[in-house]
Request: fold
Amino acid sequence: MALKMKLGSINLHCLQEENQKEKSLRIAKLIKELDLDVCFFQEVAQSKDSPIVVDNIKEDCNLYPIYKELKDNYYFYYEHKKYGFDIYEEGLAICSKYPLLEKDFYYISKSRDTSWLTRIVVRSKIKVNDEEIGLYTVHMGWDFGKEKYFDQVDLLKKGIKDKNFILSGDFNAYYGSKEYNYLLTKGLKSNTDLFNIDANANPTFAFPLDSNNSSSNRHIDYFFTSNNIKVLDYKILLKEENQRVSDHYFIYNEIEWRK
Reply:
């Protein structure tokens, strides 16, 4: 029998949103309504001096309201290794209906300090119907000084060890760009392509891209999966002005694992 999963992903915008708690609760409500199996988060941020309330999550973390709403039904893992805007601990997180069997991360940048150049992948693993599935979330950088996008992609792919995996996040690469196409050369299957999404007509980012102002394409958030996947549904949500919770929109996928 094929295994179906519902997935979500969103960049939370590093505590730059007004009415942050309300917006975090809107995300938690959507996760409940969609009955997601797994959700991935980028730009999960908290003040350096805020007190820790649970695990690695602090009191003013933009993930904390989501955690409080979902903690009875979901497992969480949050990791940060850099500072956002020099004042926030900024990182990545995964939440899952299934126990997180592993919790770790690896670097994909040459930088390994707390500067904005430092980039990691947060990784976990779940077991569903006797199938082990690796979960990976990332917020890619771009070419800047010693940091090269292609080098980060090489390390990203090298760190994926699971036969079955889901990789999601903010890739800072608009659809069809040389950066996006390089991801495809690494054997990563883009669910945008598998579901035949018109990326030009479906932005995932609300504003012109800082590093790609020559392009009007703002589709930069993706799901990549291992080979034995069929994408059953693909939606971009929380994108209307009165529904937005971030400078990114919420990406929803329903997939089916094939033996």
